[in-house]
Amino acid sequence: MATGNAAVVAPPRRPLRSAWGLLANEPSLVESLRGSRDRLTVRPASDAGWRLAASRPLSELRTQADAERGTPWPQPLVSHYARYFRDGNRTAYEGLVASRQQRLTRAVVMAALGEPGWLDEVIDGAYLLCEQSSWSWAAHDDVFTRNGEVVPDRTCPYLDLGAGEVVAQLAWLDLVLGDALDDRAPGLRKRIRLETNERVIRPFLDRLDWHWLGLHGDVHNWNPWIHSNIIAAALLLVDDPDGQAQVIARCIEGLDRFLASIPADGAIDEGFAYWWNGAGRALEGLALLEEASGGALNPDLPVIRALVAFPSRMHLGGRWFLNVADGPARAHEGLPWGMLHRWAVRLGDSEAAAHAAAFAAVEPEPNAAAGLGRVLTQLASRTQLGDSKRRTEGPLGRLLRPSWGTYLPSVQIMLARQNPGSTDGLTLAAKGGHNGEHHNHRDVGSVVVAVDGVPLLVDAGQPTYTAQTFGPDRYQIRAMQSAWHSVPAPFGLEQGTGSSFAAVLLQEPTTEEPTLALGLGAAYGLGHAEQWIRTSVMNREPGSVVIDDRWNLPAPPPVGTHQSAGTHDVDITYLVAGTVRVGTDATATITSVGIPTVSSHVGLHLRWKPATAVVLVDEWHLDDPLLSDIWGQKLTRLRFRMPEETRASGAFTLTVEATND
Predict the structure, then answer these.
(1) Most Cβ neighbours (<10 Å): which of 53, 166, 220, 497?
(2) Collapsing DSSP states into helix, strand and coil, what is residue 65?
């Protein structure tokens, strides 16, 4: 945790190569990976350890598997694939693919547990994947941009997240049930290896133009997600030792680029949710390499320690986390907390270990949506992480925390707690950064305020992905706009897109003074950063959060400036969840009534100066399930419009306190 004026030191450019040296070369890998299957934590179904797995609670998985058995398999069709290119819908295809793979995962578990009659279900599901025309998701396939077609091109497979997930599922399936498959369906394993080579291994080795390799400097979560899946495929489906070593060496190079891109504070600019499918995937891949090599490839590096600490540093309380960029504010169920716990224990990070253990204890049963590799690893783990009967959110809100909160200088994120070591009372999260971050929302200067761990001044988070999400019209989506984040709007301007639209750090928070002051002018294309200064303060003793905005603006911008023509108005916006009541005395109250899953209602009291600011209330009725499942029926925007005499130069202060409601 960085405090005061501590500098951020860049990690080594090649951390894995620096640590492993010649051990990462192909000749050494041929030797260290010999017999690797026998060293993996996940064992074949014939292993006695599966009797222990059978004793663990699997009622939900078993019930769903029984209900699916004997019914038609989900069938993604070309019309579903083509929808992405026709109308931008990507869930019609991806949902069916996910359902097919989750069903197969459940069938593999049932067969591995020795339940009779499940092997044919596994064989059918695996063969369906082999017959599936494309392993990639339509949203990623370049078939349309290459030749205007909407039908997958078998001669030019696209290696993306979807292809990585399929090949890893087939690899783990082969490890656990390989001998039984040979007895029941001779030839299936040969077919799996053929498809793996044609769709994944050869494209990976033959092409260096995959954007996710990070060869041109832009490294994002695709890199570790795909590389970790290819590692599993190489270890379990590539039988030639030289070919296996070649693939693993290439994967090590790729993971090295990802780790080299991580700042010293371990911050992930894509946020908590994407940590699991970025940094978390890297940790899984590195753990697999260490197991497979018998410990020769030891990934105990400073950058790993920083990554392991990140999830607990973003915790607000219960299942709520700070959600910057494309991420939900409430953690998904079925995350592999056990994996994070094992890393934290190994590295001696007691805070991260306690945090991960608490979540793992309330989620004891594997979730097929996590993927077969994660499910099998969870079942194979011998570590008991707590009482599996604890299902309430209570224990999650009282975990060990950094004494005051945290500050991550690389992304300019402060999370400060009213009561050090607890989520009781107020928690303030404030963000600077820039608008060229991965999965960026225009959120420079935004704030989130939670009470007893429940966010009420909020970031809306991620809506359902469509073609628009990652296209030129991304910022026409409301959830991505600065106008719907808790930030200013000088002259009604939207923030700009790109790394130059950034905050300038004016005051860094410390343990004694949890205050983050930022110059925000550049985020709006104004002439100088300090034309708008936002200071976010956690006042522990009186128990209040203060957001202070001060500005000294030029004349309103002419038509065509930046993203917007602008207006003569100066607004300051706050996005609110729950129920809002605006008073007549420059005050408002917010309660958590209406937010799903919040059973014990909490509230905030807002007051502001100058009292002459006009309050405009806009309701955002949520019809996207990804948003409504988190926030309920609506979010509310409070826009404080500054009096005319303060538009050029002025100040606005919002004070937030917890209520007893």
Answers:
(1) 166
(2) helix
